[in-house]
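Quick board copy: two proteins, each given as sequence then tokens.
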Amino acid sequence: MLPLDPLALPLQPVIVALVVVAAVYDYRLRRIPNWLTISGVVAGLSLNLILFGLPGLAGAAQALLFGFAVYFVLYLLRAMGAGDVKLMAGVSAIAGPDRWFTIFVLISLIGGVTALVLILIKGRFRHTFWNVGFIASQLMRFRSPAIGREELDIKNPKALTLPAGVRIAAGVLAFLLAGAIWPR
């Protein structure tokens, strides 16, 4: 079972402000500004140092690296934008090593459900089914699927995309809500 330890109270408004502002930017402009993501990283590292000392700083740095690394792989496959990678690094730095993975899982679940709804609404189930097969075959050959099919590149206007900032915000808010409802 995934841990739902709530974040320390001083971290909660900071992470909420970060993801809500990022979601608004990403929804409206399809980009997340560097000043926001860098602020999230700095706030995460600083607050964890202030609240928990050097172990808190070390944990925040470790979480930052994990969150960044997971999303960076998706960026290399052209499935994620650079702002999304940096936002997840900031979220991870604030959340710390014990919570970043749970937040990542929630973001993934919310993204999957949202994608299914969007696919059904747009009537692209068959097309998506074939793309999933193509993606799997390309990844087994250690190739980026976006190179073979332009609609699989997140920057292509033909791509069916969801703003990752919105998904990240939904995952963080779901984590905070679950932690408040089912505290450990």
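And the next:
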Amino acid sequence: MEQLPLNGRQLIDLVTTVPGAHQGSGAQQGKCQSALLAAGQFSAISISGSRPNANYFLLDGATNTDPTFNTQNFSPSPDSVQEFQVQTGSYSAEMGGAGGGQINIATRSGTSAFHGSVYEFLRNGASMPTPSAIGCDQPSPLQQLRGGAGGPVYGQRTFFCVNYEGYRRVAAERHDDTVPT
């Protein structure tokens, strides 16, 4: 998982690497999602010809499926994920809940040695091409700050693992309202 490129660092993009899976459409595609999803994230994945709302999401073995839209409820940062598994077809007894794909995410745990990382991604006006050079609207400035740490708390039995991912995007938004005259 660490070697795969994730444009926008969206874990759900890894599902499309499975044979028979592709981005679908519907309520899972747009703005009707849970507020816990990363900005701009979609959950409309069609696996093996099933509808996008036929998937079942798990986080550390617990249900992570939004009951309203059958989308992914919470998406952890890719740096905090140890294993990302997609099952299709016939499932074992511990899986179930939907007829589409089973997407299970296992988060990292601490280790007996201290480790950590901090880094930043910055896209500002000085580093972006002009709109005419790329043939479309200029992307908005974006700043992401990420960091994580893990290690032992006490002896060799208790460990910790924490992760932070900050996201700041500067963009103008337009809202239109209709009021009675």
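Board note added afterward: The chain has two domains: 11-107, 115-169.
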